[in-house]
Design brief:
The complex is a heterodimer of chains A (330) and B (702). Helix content of chain A is 27%, strand content 20%. Chain A has 11 helices and 12 strands. Chain A has a 5-stranded antiparallel sheet with strand order 4-5-8-6-7. In chain A, helix 2 (34-40) links the parallel strand 2 (25-28) and strand 3. Chain A is globular. Chain B has 3 domains: 18-26 and 438-547, Aldehyde Oxidoreductase, domain 4, CATH 3.30.365; 32-127 and 183-233 and 238-271, Aldehyde oxidase/xanthine dehydrogenase, molybdopterin binding domain (Aldehyde Oxidoreductase, domain 4, 2-Layer Sandwich); 146-178 and 275-435 and 554-701, 2-Layer Sandwich (Aldehyde Oxidoreductase, domain 4), CATH 3.30.365.10. Chain B is 25% helix and 24% strand. Chain B contains 16 helices and 26 strands. In chain B, the strands form 6 sheets. Chain B has a 7-stranded mixed sheet with strand order 3-5-1-14-11-12-13, sandwiched between helices. In chain B, strands 9-17-16-15-10 form a 5-stranded mixed sheet, with helices on both faces. In chain B, strands 18-19-24-25-26 form a 5-stranded mixed sheet, with helices on both faces. In chain B, helix 8 (348-366) packs parallel to helix 15 (669-681). In chain B, 61% of the residues are buried. The chains are: A alpha+beta (330), B alpha+beta (702). At the A-B interface, helix 11 of A face helix 3 and helix 16 of B. The structure holds flavin-adenine dinucleotide and iron/sulfur cluster. Residues 117, 119, 121-122, 129-131, 138-140, 148, 157-159, 200 of chain A line the site of iron/sulfur cluster (SF4).
Chain lengths: 330, 702
């Protein structure tokens, strides 16, 4: 771990100015991912700009039912907020299915969105990895990839984005508010991360210095229910093998509105647009849910050891949508 | 003074150091302050086989706070160790990825880390062979296997008997590499005072650590003091000295200051040992009633090129079931991998996964209840040696366990017990573990101001050893337990054996008992029961008592029962309940014993469903390098585990009448779970661990 400077930013604009001016600078939020990566030598910043106090840590519900979440809100607090717990259980369930109590108390919304892949080669600087060291190769394609991507990957990188929270946010049509040197803009969470293509080192659409200041959740129609399902090797404290977040509104036995996102299958939370398309207007039955999942997963290109993610994602989807349709989950 | 027995043994005393541990005042090795201490950080080799051709240290030494970089060129020369893994930095040769290629030493931990990161090592790389296969062309028969057991044993004629058997079972079982991962990493603080060496070490036996340091550095053992007062687990991986002990002592000599070295978690896998993978073929021939007529258990495993360690997986088949014809063998291949070593119940743990799975398969093939089938094959004497058992509580454990678990209501048909999207199943497996004891010395002292002190260089690795030794002493002296203080964990106390082989309490307790009896005798005989003004100290040595041995075959036994649920959509397995019944002689402290049994069973759950390391063929290391990826059970995985035991009176053991309890809890636990899984889904899981992807494949989803 190499020496670095530490600065605490007073406000978002100051933070952006500080990081944008220094190519080797990084934002520090909860530090639960960044500091680990610094210890491993994967990240070696010259300057850490602590945004813990510069960013808002409040959650505000608007009169229309939309919600603004400050990027410094801790994962535990977000999961417990009534606007989330009661109205958007998908998000609450996703957060609580992630990491451990201690980590959730420290991890922030911004940091969770921008956490890095858990690919073992990415974390070991003695090995090649295109994402960390462009052009060095991708040992995961032939090596340990049981946890890695089946959708949207390339032969240059098969990493997955590990966040649970981001999957729920993608299904909830959340947007990230980004402050950069050129001002403020919003980016849909489902489009925040890039697929690897030939440039796996470009992980997101953000530029150096861009700061996530808030996450916005649009209002949910009153009849919509949401939920999150995660499969994992052990009962707690494990990253997803696959996960599914969904928002579903059924009217008279048919799918009126649906949003579906898959986790741990791609380099970004995977908004399942093809499945959504197939579902709109379809009868809200296990058969249609399965057909829709299959339609989405037809694009899957599993590797030697991760083909199980296809039936797993399908089964999670069918079960979650069935439960939501039956009102088992709100 | 009263001499009536206080009967401390058998009472559930709390750990005497429990409060200190729970409140954080108990100090572990590197938590001890050593004024002026420097910190060391290893530089691991990044090739799986080859030689170091150059170590560039200039940048590293230019780091702020850097003190030294030890390499094979400049590190102090050591005498040749018995265990070749301790010959650290003595030659340029690299035998596996992760071997220590250099050691950075600096003023602070952070500086040491930065210094290590700046060391540049060049290698001449050679091709490596790290893929273990049961048909590996270089597989050979070792001279003996771990714990000194014979490699092969034949009785009767297996081939003919198997060929003639009415029922034949032939199945192959696989266990993965497993890592011990104790909570406290392997850690040492070393400090020289002239030619004297003081070490605080996290190990399972500091008598051995002292001897090793004296040998390697050419010191008088009297000049070496090793203290391991509190140890945060080891599970066998601290059973013999590990490289950090030697590295810290070397570094301290070079920088002439105390040096602290705690191995980073990521280096535990390459540097501290693991359970090697096994492939075990079990063949059983039986009559239609399930009576075994022929049994073969043939194990293959791998070791490193540095040190031969052969997991004795077929050995439990020499003990468990009556069979007139038997073959038990071991083969091993040396690969360019880190050296395997002890991990909780070496041999019995993987071996009983295979044997107890096979017995369950046999029961199914014969249509006999698996509890009953085991009872039908109960031997009169130890099958392999013909020696009588000193006691054998297997049948009692099976019967009582079955009763408590509610086994007899069980519908044996597999794959039919549904609860919504879940399939449920129950399973049983037996457990066994040998009785070991080693010679030790102990001292007992009557203090002039009242009370007693016993001293022995035992190690309390979290088991409660300190507490139980106090109880043994109290009973041997005939005094209340709270008047006895037990000192352990310092090599200037009388020499003791390792906290391993489930032999600690037997070995140490024996010596403590002997010293206390002698002290009681002398107090009563020479001092009229009173303590003389200067106090009175007695020492005892059990070398002769232990060496006298026994004509009996001595083993603990047990039975596991388990219920699992399988999510048919996700393949996720969750354990609903586990019950372990054990027959392990006299239980000396029910509280600490229970936690050993539960801990072992929990580790067995991990082995069945979670734990497993993957060798990366390209790089030659284990992929799972941290606790985020090497999954040990969390609280949410562990159901309410019920533990019970049979009161066993066995006069052929030791003065306490105890058998070891530290390891038997893991033995057979994995098989009980996979047998339950078979009952749930109707598929045999012969390869561990059973992850959701494996289950989905078995359910036909893939
Ligand atoms: C053992 C373990 C298990 C885990 N299990 C799970 C799990 O099951 N599911 C799961 O979802 N997660 C899991 N996590 C990951 C955890 O959720 C993340 O580490 C955490 O959410 C990161 O948040 P943070 O605030 O600590 O981020 P930091 O570590 O501070 O930052 C992460 C990255 O985001 C950048 N960053 C932070 N805030 C901003 C911002 N506002 N704008 C722009 N950039 C920013 C930082 O520069 C850094 O690159 C686990 C982590 C560990 C260590
Ligand atoms: S999958 Fe991506 S992150 Fe993993 S090694 Fe390949 S390039 Fe690196």
């Amino acid at each position: 771990m190499k020496g670095f400077d530490y600065r605490r930013a007073g406000d978002p604009a100051g933070a952006v100015a500080a990081v944008a001016a220094a190519p080797g600078a990084r934002y520090l939020a909860g530090g639960t991912n960044l500091v680990d990566l610094m210890k491993l030598g994967v990240e070696a910043p010259d300057l850490l700009v602590d945004v813990g106090r510069a960013l808002d840590d409040r959650i505000e519900e608007g009169p229309d039912g939309s919600v603004r979440i400050g990027a410094a809100v801790r994962n535990s607090d977000l999961a417990a907020h009534p606007a989330v717990r009661r109205r958007r259980p998908a998000l609450s369930q996703a957060l609580l299915a992630g990491a451990s109590g201690q980590l959730r108390n420290t991890a922030t919304v911004g940091g969770n969105l921008l956490q890095r892949t858990r690919c073992p080669y990415f974390q070991d600087i003695t090995k090649p990895c295109n994402r960390r060291d462009p052009g060095s190769g991708c040992p995961a394609v032939e090596g340990a990839h049981r946890d890695l991507a089946i959708l949207g990957a390339s032969d240059q990188c098969v990493a997955t984005h590990p966040s649970d929270m981001a999957v729920a946010l993608a299904a909830l049509d959340a947007e990230a508010v980004v402050l950069g040197t050129a001002g403020q803009r919003t980016v849909p969470v489902a489009e925040l991360h890039r697929l690897p293509g030939d440039h796996p080192e470009r992980e997101t659409v953000l530029e150096h210095g861009d700061l996530i200041t808030d996450v916005l959740l649009p209002a949910l129609p009153p009849g919509a229910r949401s939920g999150y399902r995660k499969a994992r090797d052990r009962a707690s404290y494990a990253f997803a093998l696959a996960s599914v977040a969904a928002v579903l509104e059924v009217r008279e036995g048919s799918v009126h509105r649906v949003a579906l996102a898959f986790g741990a299958v791609a380099a970004r939370p995977w908004r399942a647009r093809t499945a959504e398309e197939a579902l709109r207007g379809a009868p809200a039955t296990a058969e249609s849910f399965a057909r829709a999942a299959d339609a989405e997963l037809a694009a899957a290109r599993p590797l030697r050891d991760n083909g199980y993610k296809v039936p797993l994602t399908r089964n999670l989807t069918v079960r979650l949508l069935t439960d939501l349709a039956e009102g088992a989950s709100r | 003074m009263s001499t009536t027995s206080s009967r401390a043994l058998g009472t559930p005393l709390r750990r005497v150091e429990g409060r200190a541990k729970a409140t954080g005042t108990a100090r572990y090795a590197v938590e001890h302050s050593a004024p002026g201490a420097a910190y060391a950080w290893p530089v691991p080799a990044t090739v799986a086989r080859g030689a170091v051709t150059a170590v560039h240290c200039a940048d590293a030494l230019a780091e702020p706070g850097a003190l030294a970089v030890l390499t094979h060129e400049n590190a102090p020369r050591l005498r040749e160790p018995q265990d070749a893994t301790l010959a650290v930095l003595q030659s340029p040769e690299i035998a596996h990825r992760g071997q220590v290629a250099a050691l950075a030493v600096a003023e602070t931990l952070e500086a040491a880390r930065a210094c290590a990161a700046a060391v540049r090592v060049e290698y001449a790389q050679l091709p490596h062979d790290v893929v273990f296969r049961a048909d590996h062309p270089r597989l050979y028969a070792p001279e003996q296997v771990n714990a000194g057991y014979p490699t092969d044993r034949e009785r009767g004629g297996f081939d003919a008997a198997y060929a003639a058997a009415a029922v034949q079972l032939d199945a192959t079982y696989r266990t993965p590499p497993l890592h011990n991962h104790p909570m406290e990493p392997h850690a040492t603080v070393a400090e020289w005072d002239g030619s004297r060496l003081l070490v605080r070490d996290s190990d399972q036996g500091s008598s051995d650590a002292r001897r090793t340091l004296a040998d390697l550095f050419g010191l008088d053992p009297e000049d070496v003091l090793v203290v391991s007062e509190h140890v945060g687990g080891g599970f066998g991986s601290k059973g013999t000295p590990r490289p950090q002990l030697v590295l810290a002592a070397m570094a301290a000599r070079v920088v002439q200051r105390p040096v602290k070295l705690a191995l980073p978690r990521r280096l535990l896998a390459p540097l501290t040992g693991h359970r090697a993978p096994t492939v075990q073929r079990v063949r059983i021939g039986a009559d239609r009633d399930g009576r075994i007529t022929a049994l073969a258990h043939e194990s293959a495993t791998c070791t490193s090129t540095v040190r031969e360690f052969v997991e004795q997986s077929s050995v439990p088949s020499r003990v468990m079931y009556a069979s007139p014809n038997s073959r038990t063998t071991h083969r091993v291949v040396a690969l360019n991998l880190p050296s395997p070593s002890w991990m909780r119940a070496p041999g019995e743990c993987p071996g009983m996964f295979a044997l107890e799975s096979a017995v369950d398969e046999l029961a199914e093939a014969c249509g006999v209840d698996p509890v009953e089938l085991r009872i039908r094959n109960e031997p009169d004497a130890e099958p392999d040696s013909g020696r009588p058992f000193s006691s054998r509580g297997l049948v009692a454990c099976l019967r009582e366990g079955a009763r408590r678990f509610g086994w007899h209501d069980r519908d044996p048909r597999p794959g039919v017990h549904r609860e919504g999207g879940l399939l449920l199943g129950t399973g049983v497996a037996a457990a066994t573990y040998p009785v070991y004891a080693s010679p030790c010395a102990a001292e007992a002292r009557a203090e002039p101001g009242g009370g007693f002190t016993v001293g022995i260089n035992a190690t309390d690795i979290g088991t409660g050893a300190r507490t139980v030794l106090g109880q043994i002493a109290a009973d041997a002296l005939g005094v209340p337990a709270d008047t006895v203080r037990a000192l352990v964990g310092r090599s200037d106390l009388p020499r003791a054996s390792v906290a391993g082989g489930s032999s600690g309490t037997a070995s140490w307790g024996w010596a403590v008992h002997k010293a206390c009896r002698e002290l009681r005798l002398r107090l009563d005989r020479d001092h009229g029961g009173a303590v003389p003004p200067g106090g009175l100290t007695v020492t005892a040595d059990t070398t002769e008592d232990v060496r006298a041995g026994s004509e009996y075959a001595r083993h603990a036994f047990g039975a596991h029962f388990a219920e699992v649920q399988v999510d048919t959509g996700t393949g996720e397995v969750r354990v609903r309940r586990m019950l372990g019944m054990f027959a392990a002689g006299r239980i000396l402290n029910p509280r600490t014993a229970r936690s050993q049994f539960i801990g072992g069973m929990t580790m067995g759950l991990g082995m069945a469903l979670l734990e497993g390391s993957t060798v990366d063929p390209r790089f030659g290391d284990h992929v799972e390098a941290d606790l985020a990826s090497y999954h040990v059970p969390t609280c949410a995985d562990v159901p309410d585990i019920e533990v019970g035991w049979i009161d066993e009176e066995d006069p052929h053991l030791n003065p306490m009448g105890s058998k070891g309890i530290g390891e038997i809890g893991i033995v057979g636990a994995a098989a009980a779970l996979t047998n339950a899984l078979h009952h749930a889904v109707g598929h045999r899981f012969r390869t561990l661990p059973v992850h959701p992807d494996t289950v989905l494949a078995a359910l036909g989803a893939l």
